[in-house]
Amino acid sequence: MRRKIVLGILLFCVSAFSAEALSLQDALDRAKASNSKIKANKEKVAMAESGQSEARARFMPTISLSAGVTRIDDPIYIDLSEIQNAMSGIAGGLSSAAGAAAYSKAYIDAYNQAYDATFAQATGAGLPEATAASMAQTKAREIAQDNANTFGAEATQQIDAAKKQIDDADFSMKVQDDLFFNARLSVVWPIFTGLKIKSAYDASKENVAARKAEFDMATNTVLMEVATRYFSLRLAEELTVLREDTKKNLENHLERSKKLEEGGQISKAERLRAEVALAEAENALENSKRDQSLARMALASLLKTDTNLTATTPIAMPENVHSMDEFKQLAKDKHPGLRQLRVERKRSESAVSAARADYFPTIALFGYKELYTKDLTLLEPEWAVGAKLQMDLFKGGDTRAKVSNAKALERSLSSMEEETLDNISLLVEKRWRELEHARGQLESLKKTRELADESLRSQQMAYESGLATGLDVVDAELALARLKMADLKAHYDAVIAWLGLLEASGEVENAGSLMKTETSEVAK
Asked: How far apart are CA 35 and CA 21, in angstroms?
């Protein structure tokens, strides 16, 4: 019987020779490469890594180049008219004083020179000293008066000319044209932010880890669905082969019934019963083919490929399977959803540190250099360096609220982690019991398989000898077919339960390498 089933599978594969042979590992690899959900979560990881690079850049100074051209309504001037008026007043006051001072100095200098010269000339001519002194005084007064008048007038003219220059001068200065250009190179470097930058960087690293865990979770879920649909297709294909084999056996039984009816050994009713059984088998075969087509379409939709494919990995678990306790430990250590929660909890700790950073001042170094100095005003330097400090003294309790919110999030994630641990442990136990139930069914079916095979053989021999009816043969044939189908279903249930355990432990992607690679029928 096993040879017949294997032969049926081979014939089915030959009939579908153009279909792509696909192992479970091939299906998993193709899903990882082409599934839209996996691709979307992969891009989220790339976004998180870009965010980490952005957070790392905040440790470095910011260097910027700025330039611009500006047009204003009017040029900007500085009005110095008050200084002009003060200087003009001073010059006006000096005009008379300077004239008098020049007159006095010129008079004294000329008088002394003229007196000495006249006195010496008179005494040299033999005049008495008294007469010479009188002549010298008279002559000196005349000369000094003339010189003093001349020098006083000249001094007054010079001061008046200076005053006129001050009054006529433009005491306004242009400091900015109405059209001007500027270009500046600036540097700003925060050197202390109360650990705000470091906390943001730590949070970005944890975000990358969280997105990777989310990607693993999505991949695990998708691959579990792929594996389930894969074995649903494999089950449908093997059921189709079994029903095809049942149909052929019933066709052979009908042919024998016709011959026995012609020989008068059986009644017409028994031959009709064989025809009805064959018709039911044909209808079941058509239904199985439709189920197979739907299963193929369901798998192809996940793999983003056409429906021209066939499953080759048999429905059979690996012989060596972890114990329930081992699966529970693996799930606690590797379940991607639990890992994501742990990372999110760690990231919430960074959020608390970032919120507390608002209690501290921000200190930054800065500097700039004007690259275009032609249009600078008198009040603008060409370069400057310095440091600045900023500290929020009162924000209405905003910082305290942020810290409380971050701590509440941390406590919430901690509670969610505990709940998830319990749920995962329960899930593993549920899957394990399903696996044990399927194993029990398989053990039970093994004990009845030999009996069913022998019962069919005995009924066929008795029927040909006229000791059994066609109904007995049909019932035995259908009983064996149902037993084979139940055996396949039990293997399918066991594999799905085992895949569920792999899903809980985050190892569905390794299912293909753990399965048997040879293509064979599991029903024996």
From this structure: 19
Q: How many residues does the structure list for the chain?
A: 524
Least Cα distance to 505 among 413, 430, 425 occurs for 425
C-alpha span between 453 and 163 (Å, rounded): 138
The beta strand positions in 332-417, using DSSP E, are 362-370, 383-390
pLDDT at position 153:
66
φ and ψ at 338, to 5 degrees? -70, -40
The three-state secondary structure class of 459 is helix
Cα dihedral 416/417/419/425 (nearest 10) = 150
Alpha-carbon gap, residue 305 to 27, rounded angstroms: 11
Interval 326-337: pLDDT, tens: 888 888 888 888
Strands of the sheet containing 362-370, edge to edge, are 62-71, 179-192, 362-370, 383-390
Q: Would you give the distance in Å from CA 464 to the centre of its chain?
A: 75
CB 341 within 8 A of CB 416: yes
**DSSP summary character for residue 357:** G
Query: Which residue in the block uniquely carries the two structure tokens 């009996």?
Result: 451
| C-alpha to C-alpha distance for 365 and 361, rounded to whole angstroms | 13
List phi, psi (to 5°) of 182: -140, 150
Residues with Cβ within 8 Å of 445's Cβ and at least 6 positions away in sequence, in order, are 483, 486, 487, 490
> Tokens 């009162």 correspond to what residue?
394
| Measured distance CA(366)–CA(380) in Å, rounded | 16
Report how far residue 493's alpha carbon sits from residue 486's, in angstroms, rounded to the nearest whole number. Answer: 10
The pTM for the full model equals 0.67
Tens of pLDDT, residue by residue over 21-31, are 888 888 888 88
